[in-house]
Amino acid sequence: MKDQIIRKIFNGLIYIHILHHGNDDKFYGSWMIDELKEHGYNMSPGTLYPILKNMVEEGLLEKEDVNVNGKIRKYYRTTSDGAKLLNELRVNLRILVDEIS
User: Fold this and answer.
1) Cβ(22)–Cβ(32) below 8 Å
2) Per residue in 29-59, pLDDT tens?
3) Which residues neighbour 76 within 8 Å (Cβ) at sequence distance 6 or greater?
């Protein structure tokens, strides 16, 4: 039970992390997997890419296909709607952290 709750909380934080980095600069999927790994998330491409696809479909991220050495690399960046959501989430997280600490 405890592990399931922790997993659900971390899954929500992954979305915030993606929006944060996409708001700073564009990124590609394997870079995000490595970035999340540095923060303790062990995420496979089979888990991350559907999240990114859904975030694009929801209008939170935009995707750009770029030819890199003959291969197409998908870059992601936070949209204006995604940035608005990120700001709302930051405010809500600050309020929550202040309340529980």
Assistant:
1) no
2) 999 999 999 988 888 999 999 999 999 999 9
3) 18, 22, 26, 27, 28, 29, 32, 52, 55, 56, 61, 62, 63, 64
